[in-house]
Amino acid sequence: xxEYDVVIGLEIHAELKTKTKVFCSCKNEFGSKxxxxxxxxxxxxxGALPIINKKAVELCIKAGLCFGCKISNYAVMERKNYFYPxxxxxxxxxxxxxxxxxxGQIELASGKVMRxxxxxxxxxxxxxxHISKSVGTLxxxxxxxxxxxxxxxxxxxxxxxxxxxFLKRIREALVFADIAxxxxxxxxxxxxxxxxxxxKGSTILGTRTEMKNLNSFKSVSRAIEYEIKRQTExxxxxxxxxxxxxxxxxxKGKNLTMRxxxxxxxxxxxxxxxxxxxxxxxxxxxxxASEMPQLPQARRQKYVEEFGLPKYDAEILTTSKYxxxxxxxxxxxxxxxxxxxxxxxxxxxxxxxxxxxFVFPISAQxxxxxxxxxxxxxxNKTVGIQLLEKVxxxxxxPKSLADKMGLLVTISNEQILELLQKLKAENTKVCEDYKAxxxxxVGFIVGYVMKNTGGKANSMLxxxxxxxxxx
Amino acid sequence: MKFEExxxxxxxxxxxxxxxxxxxxxxxxxxxxxxxxxxxxxxxVFDDAIAKAKxxxxxxARCEKVGKLAGVPVAIKDIIACKGxxxxxxxxxxxxxxxxxxxxxxxxxEAEDAIIFARTNMDEFAMGSSCENSCYGACKxxxxxxxxxxxxxxxxxxxxxSGLCPVAIGTDTxxxxxxxxxxxxxxxxxxxxxxxxxxxxxxxASSTDQAGPITKTIEDNEFILSILAGKDANDGTSIENDxxxxxxxxxxxxxxxxxxxxxxxxxxTYPQFESAIHxxxxxxxxxVEVDVPHIADCLACYYILTPAEATSNxxxxxxxxxTIRSEEAKSLEEVYVKSRSExxxxxxxxRIMLGNFVLSSGYFDAYYKKAKKLQTLLKQEFAEAxxxxxxxxxxxxxxxxxxxxxxxxxxxxxxxxxxxxVPASIAGIPALSIPYAKGKTGLPLGLQLMGxxxxxxxxxxxxxxxxxxxxx
Lengths: 471, 472
Fold this sequence. Notes:
The structure holds two protein chains of two kinds. By secondary structure, chain A is of the alpha+beta class. Chain A has helices at 54-66, 160-176, 217-236, 282-290, 296-305, 311-317, 321-333, 337-352, 364-375, 381-394, 398-405, 413-426, 428-436, 438-452, 459-470, and strands spanning 4-15, 70-71, 74-75, 78-81, 91-94, 101-102, 105-107, 113-123, 127-132, 136-140, 147-153, 189-199, 209-212, 244-249, 254-260, 270-271, 278-279. Chain B is built from 16 helices and eleven strands. In chain B, α4 (104-111) links the parallel β2 and β3 (115-120).
């Protein structure tokens, strides 16, 4: 049995987050009634012409900036000609010779660098629904003409794990920079896998297959494992891998031939004469770059190295741009990153954990005010959490609310402890009673402290401190 | 009243001053269409035209403000989308197609209160120079019914020449307005590329398609083009072309292209062309020889670029949508192959094959890419030539209208019809054809005036002065 190296390259499609389609003003929306979001342009009516959506171009450039691509100063939309009923014009407007973004790379946790070949802009096709032999197939052009970016990588991957990490990095960045939603289950992100095997250590590439219809991260991994096994078996049996496109069947956990190389199409690409070449100046690129948020990888590094946060905290805080921005806003108001991180991770995230897109129910300013009060010991942590809940409920500023509620501690812990010690020394009966049944004397003890502090002590705090002296 | 004898201005004045009704004018032209149905120029008269004319007359009676083309009936080539109306491109493939939207130029004409009243015959998908490639049968020449009308906008040219409408809109990809205008003795222009929005005009070759008016007079032509032209948000290749406000000159310099001289001298119609040059000389215009070194390669360039684009533009007629779906098809592949075999005519199929060939992998660089380079070169050569003259003149066509059936079996002979018209299409420059002489058999001949980008005003002005002065 020979040993093989695995060579994998990816083609990733992501739907761009634009309000309208890429060549017409129809809504770019998932889940509408069939053919609701269509017009003469996206249904390819004779005579209709495309007008390129500038926002889509901008988002594609943004994606390029996420991964260090070179942004082209001159990009061309081309026609990719092929027949299929979901393609209204019988050509897809895409890019071949002059894509918007060239090159780029992503570094994995292992330090291995995965190179991108390009990122280009194109339109999506419609959707076919096969009903039955008698009824036939229905076509829905809602998705037709929605903007996509295609990210093409170099064949740098050698395992399903690397692919999985890479895809997660891609998704994270695209979602973070507000470029795409990347919901794989809605087809918002799709991945085709090109895979071949070569003899271990050899520089000669083997014959590759292309796998399509991979609709989740899990199915990408499973499909890669399956295809590695399949090709290994073919080669070990002394046979040859056939260059072909294979369709992954997730339910059956295997892939099947879709079309062979002989059936491969000649797409007859040529520049679309309806769309003028796109000129992108350095100023345009600089402007788009200035609107880019810092990406999660860089933020994590900052959180760990500058803020001294544990990696775990950095991961959690960068799961969305919203959380990360909120955290950073707090750190600007109060230089206690770990304390802020704790509050967000323990006390805030649990409030919104079931929600997909959420807003924390308290402003960063108010949260920081509460944290400060705890830090300065004007309230303790437990009271702080009560105050947090009250602020969320009433939307009032924490300080004045705490004041109104009498939560503010003007008597220090030390003073309370001193009074408790004094009581303990003066009144031995209380000590004994406390040991027998604490709940029966707590009220008395609190009353004593309140009496001796003119009612200014925090009763909650007193209750908490009692065990320290009497316990 | 013989309304076809009035100019557009006179028609509009008559209607708006209530000297006569738009309804009468529209009815009159509809009658003319019916009377001359043997020409096969008109495919359909729209049944709501009279009602629209009546509504406009009422508007005028109420003294409401009306547009610059108030009540004027306009015929359109059957390739221009008009909401709710049939549009077939003279192809079996679209026989039942009704457009769900209107072309920008239809909206512009309607905004000026024109009455879009009929659609005219053409070569299928605008491919042809004789109007014989039509699923409705050939359109006949307005001067001799045994001769072709020219094409592809044959129906539009014949309709104007025979008085079936005061103005018709054609489209010109390589000469399709100018050549039939020449064959029927009317005025036709292919404007600067991009001047007239292509939105709503079924694409043949997107990078050279331009709609243009066909009229009896130069003045009418200029008037209509001034309404059609302008940048359109729905057409990314459209440009602003405010030609109408360009200045005119007393005297112009007429260019003769050196590289075409030999070809023109060999023509039967050379004496007529020579006398046109003399007429310009008599007017005191300078005649200069200019160089457009690659002009002779335009035809080859044209028959690579336009089929390539056409192949892709016509791919949407796939048997899945539109009229034709082969009954015999048993698989998806057969739906494509059989429907397209049944639905398209011979000339369209020929160009689809040609286009697919030049775009296919391995041939793309040798044909398409090379032709594109040549196009860039030609644009520069023309720009250079127009530094030395205001217009370059040629005969619009090599000769008079030929006989029906005469060239249909010989595609190359047919393609040579476009020899003089194709260069302006490839270079994207304006070219005007005006009637200027009669041929041997007494049929009209056209003179073509090509100009620099956006120089339509200059071309119209030279043509007007030529008609007034030199032609006497």
